[in-house]
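Section: Multi-chain targets

For targets with more than one molecule, the full set of components is provided together so that the structure can be written out for the assembly as a whole rather than chain by chain. Components appear in the order listed by the source. The example entry contains two components.
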Amino acid sequence: MTRILVVDDEPQIVRALRINLAARHYDVDTAPDGASALRAASHHHPDLVVLDLGLPDMEGTEVIRGLRGWTTIPIIVLSGRVDSRDKVRALDAGADDYITKPFGVDELLARIRAVTRRAQPAGEPPPVATIGRHAIDLAARSVTGGEGLVRLSPTEWQLLEHLLRHPGKLLSQRALLQGVWGPEYLTETNYLRQYMARLRRKLETDPAHPRHLLTEPGMGYRFQP
Amino acid sequence: MARGELRIFLGAAPGVGKTYTMLEEAHRRVERGTDVAVAFVETHGRKHTHAMLADLEVLPRRTVTYRGVEFTEMDLDAVLARKPEVAVVDEFAHTNVPGSRNAKRWQDIQELLNAGIDVLTTVNVQHLESLNDVVARITGVEQRETVPDALVRAAEQVELVDMTPEALRRRMAHGNIYKPEKIDAALGNYFRTGNLTALRELALLWLADKVEDQLGKYRADHGINATWETRERVVVALTGGPEGDTLIRRAARIAARDKGADLMAVHVTRNDGLAGADPAALSRQRVLVESLGGTYHQVVGADVPRALLDFARAVNATQIVLGVSSRGKLAQLFSAGVGVTTTAMSGSIDVHLVTHERAAQGRRAQRLPAALSRRRRIAGFAATIAGLPALTALLHAGPSLSLTNDILLFLAAVVGVSLIGGLWPALLAAVAGSLLLNYFFTPPIGRFTIAEIDNLLALAIFVIVAIAVSWVVDTAARKTRQAAQAGADAQTLATVAGSVLRGERPLIALLDRLRETFALQSVTLLEDGVVVANVGDTTCTVAADADAEVKVDDHLKVLLRGRPLEASARRIVEAFAAQAAVALRQERLSAEAASAKPLAEADRMRTALLAAVSHDLRTPLASAKAAVASLRSADVHFDDDDRSELLATADESLDRLDRLVANLLDMSRLQAGALGVTLIGIGVEDIVPRALDDLGPDGRKVAVHIPDDIPLVHADPGLLERIVVNLTANALRYSPAEQLPVITASTLSGTLELRIIDHGPGIPADRWDDVFLPFQRLGDRDNHTGVGLGLALSRGLTEAMGGTLTPEDTPGGGLTMILALPTVSGT
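Its structure, encoded as tokens over all components, is:
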């Protein structure tokens, strides 16, 4: 059973989350402020933290840093702040994803699934994913379905593989550049943009309205299964 | 075989109707029984043009495949084989697809002409080689297709197909030239009224064969003035004499002939003691100039032609109008008049010498005794050198006079020289005179006997008399000069006072007049070290940068830059400065008065506004609350359909509330200057789909055309998304169901333009500014439009990111919002 720590000073939000998460068979702990959140985390060892940024006793980013001092458990920020700066700051501090309030419960649940999936031990199942009309088999390096033959270059395959192996999870530009091109290409965000555009053109049903290969402007990319 | 005749239809811009006019001509020739064939015509899908092709013989085109793409070109061989009397060939400057026989279409046309076929063709002014770079600078669009001017000049007939910029823009707005989604940043920029005016003017000038000399000026002006400033500027010089009225009228006629030329009258106030201006006449002429739409200026200068030309060059004048000299024939013998000198020094400025009824009648004898000019001093020396020997010779030759009379005559000569030439000639005359007396007239004759005390005394008396007389003369001259200077100053001050009372922004007008009067670079008014007003190219903020500093009071001072101030000018500058302080106070008072009025209005606005906002907040809140409360009520049972409908109502209402609250929050952040903007490089192709998703199912219907190679823009992703959501929501709201909005993106010189195009009812151009004002809807009676925050917020957010948001007519009807943002360079 997955244990989730919900940190928010707004009782209504906490209540709504507790009911929803419990109904999906998660164990739920709650904390109304930063100090009790850090205490609860060290006592109960949750598998995931859902964290508000504006807490009465300290900044949410401090809580993230406090947790990152000793654990790598996934942290999802749930905040009313919409500034790009706040998002980047939270992600830089070590958060795994960022959702703005008001939020859809479905979206939050999907993100929770995405970040906990990564945290599962290795021995991953053979990833076969679907994008539009195409079925993609990473092991066989084949794209089937759709009209005409789709051929991907080795770099395109590598990028696609990174995205598909973390379904639903936000991947930063840095992480993708490092993973696909190597550490000396960390600033070449233009490569990423071009290759993402190519992948969309080849795989998405409507490349101008991508459904699966998504850009989170300023944050990174996400494969939405 | 006789060579064919070439007729060219020249246009200032695409869409003026060149092809249409050419086809009309083709029809006329067909009616006259001429054998006409259309070899190549591009209708650009314009249906009126297409209809003109109906009854004409259209020859088939040649299809060429180049790099896998099919192009159609004129089939030259087929035309030569068909050999009509007249061939119609569009686009003279067209470049053929590589692999064709000739690189350019004009070469094809030469072959047709050589074969004896008459050709009708079209060309746009931007394709003329000599105008190419000018056009590129006006429009910002590089033209690759050019045609040598000589070829167009060699045509038997060149016909200008003319249309006013306003009419052309109307055609554009009606969708008769391009389809809305074809209009990108470059094309939109091309069709600005200013550009079209400049292009049209170029076409007219080129045709009038005036282009060579005009072009030089055009280029020179380009850096300084706005791109379309090809105007003439006529300066008329006024002496203050009665002939001024004639000159002003004549200059106004010259200005009227060049449409839109500026008229400027200038009077040079002389400060060298030569008065002559009649203040009453000048002020009457000033009124006349202003009534003819011109402006009146006054400069001070010793040398009239030079001062006049300095002024003319400073204002970029192209023509000067001067009266023919009114001095008598005798005076003209001795010195060239102002007109002649000005003409000689005018350089590229045309000088018109206008005759009038007072010409050469001699001016009123009001020339006052002059100060001791150089000319007078030279005359004094000349009189000494020529006069004294002559006197000596005369006295020797004539009857012998007594020594006393000789001495008195010499003394009279010295006094005469003093009166003419002042001190130095007088001294020379005194010494020379006494020596001559001593040598020729006092015994012993023929020898200098200075040593004798008597003769030394005589010399001393001569010198004393010379000094005394010349001192009186000098003093009188200096007084006269001061009087003249005071007169000039008084005249300038009178002008100053006039300009303060008249102008709309008296302070700036006043400082400008000061700058003009003393030929300064810049004049700056400082209050406690802070610049409150400045005219000229530079701004001085500290006294160290300035050439002169004039204090008005403890707080205000004026800094002048350009040249040091002589003591006499300082007084007048002080008067200017005092006036400037008055003008400043006057401006502040009127600004205060103006701001008091809106305050009362704002109060009324606020009440209405609160009603509107609270209505918009409460409506969705009420429906959500009602839906949820119904679901919770224990006394009724809802079936599944009702339940899901109630839930959907609550969800939709809350979404609506969310959008409104976000807009209100952003608006207040924007107004408080607390908006967090993080500019990063982002692709619009990532933002637009997200924005459309926000708009729900309707958003998915919007067509998006964004090229793959579009550069990144500097923007805040969240804010940009909000803007696109707001703009697209508006476009959707006003679009008819069968014609949904379109979003296109294009770039032009470092700017990306995102166009949100709708085909709704559009907005009249005079209301374009109003739609960006927040809270236009007041009160709580309208349920459909919202409080009118969307556009105001969008523009505010765009500007916070360093971009612009401007509306334009959609060709064929509707509104196009152009969101322009700086691109990330180097990508």
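The radius of gyration of chain A is 19 Å.
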